[in-house]
Amino acid sequence: MSVEPRKKRLNKKDAYKYMTRLGWNPTYQKEEDVFPFLEMEGLKIHDWEAWEDPFRMTMDSYWKLQAEKDKKLYSIIDAFAQNNAQKNISDARYVNALKLFLTGVTPLEYKVVQGFSHAARAFRGEGASIACQMQAIDELRHFQTQVHTMSHYNKYFDGFHDYSTMHDRIWYLSVPKSFGDDASTAGPFEYLTAISFSFEFVLTSLLFVPFMSGAAYNGDMATVTFGFSAQSDESRHMTLGLSAIKFMLEQDAQNVPIVQKWMDKWLWRGYRMLGLVAMMMDYMLPNSPTSWGEAVELYIEQNCMALYKDLEKYGIKVPEKLINTIVAEKGHLSHQVWNIFYNHTNAAAFHTWMPDENKMNWLSEKYPDTFDKYYRPMFERYIELEKKGERFYSEVLPLVCQTCQIPLGFTDIEGGNPHVYTHKTSEFNGEIFHTCSDGCKEIFDAQPEKYIQAWLPPHQIFQGNCGGATIPEVLKWYKIEHGVDNMDYVGSPDEAMWNKLKNK
């Protein structure tokens, strides 16, 4: 009996080569027709082969490891559901942080799938193309696991339905949506700078680490598991972001000012979007493991600054003006964002509340220079109004920034006027456009033709594009059921369900 000799196992280099093989040269079409986006950004690329796919060393084990991660994740999701673990979270107020994540972040993950798929097609280099394809697959997995994990809460609490429609329509969700739209309508290299570098490499820790540790602090182990499962992919994504930046900088010295402009723009745009995370960390988590101010000190003042300094050898400079603004605002940002949402809770797809005495004391400890001086008196005034039955609900939406679409509700901290709202204006083609800060004004002024096309929610209501002119009509178009999905947590169906689950 003869035995077929076993074929020799391919080494990693050959295995990667046979699994990819996208590096063909066009022969019957012009290269500029096959890759039409390569010239539009003004970068000079001399050697595409210099960009190696950072995923290449893990390609052969990628599918097995991802399958094992998913198997463990779905086992924990099943166990969470079968053991009615929704009863074990700290308080039903925590669920509102999940609603904000599901409507704000999860659809953005799917947008990133589309963006990286487009970037993979647009790049000339094989390494860049494969790396973008692999990240698109990762992001699709993140989108799916987030939806599957949080779907359990939809059985018990309101506000988890129709999250994708909410993402496209609700006023405050235009902040993450406009971030994704802005990035995906840029060229492929700017897209990678926006997502892979500025967000994944510089800012992702400000989103995922506090959110997942917050979930752990509040008893939500299913969310913790999907978070860590996704976070283990982020290290590869960070590698792609840094390799993209270094590739552009090393190809030609004339690329440096272009890359510097993109890095600064997307650092600021990412920071503005994370204002929603600041509110979540300090106010929406019943038990907060860390404050927004502490996170800024670690991830921006230390890590981000160190990253910029590492790139100084290429000619990249630290954006001192932007960093100074971020540092100046760290003691104010979360309080001002929560104040905006508390007053507009009738048009939000989650509940709000005033912090109790324990939470206020925690905020006083974390923000000794600002909370007791500026925000505790204001919130105690709100509590008094609630007790007297004079709770205020805004009947209109705030003016939003033409660039980042954050409401113009931040004050002039750097200028020493914490009670005065910041407001910048730009003129283009005879019209006035409003922005929230110097950072957003500079972004607008650099590309006014792009940002005048922004879909601004308050303006769209006035133009009759949001189901009607009244609050009930707009809420119906938002897919928000008034009195169920919005308004105060106290007295809500969510509170009633929580009391039922806890036998109160």
From TrEMBL:
<keyword id="KW-0503">Monooxygenase</keyword>
<protein>
    <submittedName>
        <fullName>Phenol hydroxylase, oxygenase component P3</fullName>
    </submittedName>
</protein>
<keyword id="KW-0560">Oxidoreductase</keyword>
<dbReference type="InterPro" id="IPR012348">
    <property type="entry name" value="RNR-like"/>
</dbReference>
<dbReference type="InterPro" id="IPR003430">
    <property type="entry name" value="Phenol_Hydrox"/>
</dbReference>
<dbReference type="Pfam" id="PF02332">
    <property type="entry name" value="Phenol_Hydrox"/>
</dbReference>
<dbReference type="GO" id="GO:0004497">
    <property type="term" value="F:monooxygenase activity"/>
</dbReference>
<dbReference type="InterPro" id="IPR009078">
    <property type="entry name" value="Ferritin-like_SF"/>
</dbReference>
